[in-house]
Design a protein that fits this description.
Oligomer: single chain
Strand order of the largest sheet: 1-2-3-4
Mean pLDDT: 83
Largest sheet: 4 strands, antiparallel
Radius of gyration: 19 Å
Number of strands: 12
Low-confidence stretches: 1-9
């Protein structure tokens, strides 16, 4: 015999809800244009703008309400890239400062842990590899691999023949 199949209207996928809500991020409580954004493992959102500010938010996706938790002037100019290194550790790259900063963001406050400044041009992107290791790509035609918890600068530099504007960790 034939089985009865009931077709139910599916709820809106969470990814679409998040995308709609993220669009609203550029409309609220930023000092300037948003250049970078990342969702943290505890569901807070960090944004970086073209004036160098990093802002932490929480989001109620159902009510599409953003709550600003704190902000910090992280760089002298634009924040090109943000990534979460580990719980309560955020990494940011600044555009014309050629620097990378590692932040402790416990209790929704910013405490600068370390500044990494071995690039000689704009740092376009930072990505995490492990809880201690990040990679950065720069217009100085290098990719640098950093151990951010090492006592002394622990860097491996990969030379390229082109500016490195985007990097990806493959599985």
């Amino acid at each position: 015999g034939l089985a009865n199949i009931e077709i139910k209207k599916e709820e809106e996928p969470i990814i679409e809800t998040k995308i709609q809500s993220l669009k609203k991020a550029t409309e609220i409580e930023h000092k300037s244009d948003v250049w970078s954004i990342t969702e943290l493992s505890d569901l807070r959102i960090a944004t970086g703008d073209d004036k160098g500010y990093i802002t932490l938010f929480t989001i109620d996706y159902e009510k599409e309400r953003w709550t600003k938790l704190n902000e910090e002037l992280g760089h002298d100019n634009g924040v090109n890239s943000l990534c979460e290194l580990s719980e309560n550790k955020l990494v940011s790259s600044g555009s014309f400062a050629y620097s990378i900063e590692v932040w402790d963001i416990s209790n929704d406050t910013f405490r600068l842990i370390k500044t990494l400044d071995e690039h000689s041009d704009n740092v376009c992107q930072v990505i995490p590899f492990t809880k201690d290791i990040i990679a950065s790509g720069s217009q100085d035609q290098t990719i640098k691999i950093w151990n951010v918890n090492a006592e002394e600068e622990d860097i491996k530099t990969l030379e390229e023949d082109f500016p490195v504007c985007s990097i990806l960790k493959l599985r």
